[in-house]
Amino acid sequence: MSRRGGAVTFFVNASKGENAVVTVRLSGAVAIAKTRSLQDEGWQVFITGPDGNRYHPSEFEKLLATDSTERSGA
Fold first, then answer.
1. pTM of the full structure
2. Helix-helix angle 28-40:60-72, to 10 degrees
């Protein structure tokens, strides 16, 4: 996926009971930090990466690899 001149975005998705929130982050590392803070508060979380895939907490290492690939232009 090409991101020439555009921002790479990560969507942090969280749900708790009947509440759901989505926030946007421009870095995989920042998105992971946000999900971890939400998870500590009891939210169920996942991140949608710039590749359109969902990443759950057990897959965050894959997300960091995607983030560095997108930023390097590979």
1. 0.79
2. 160
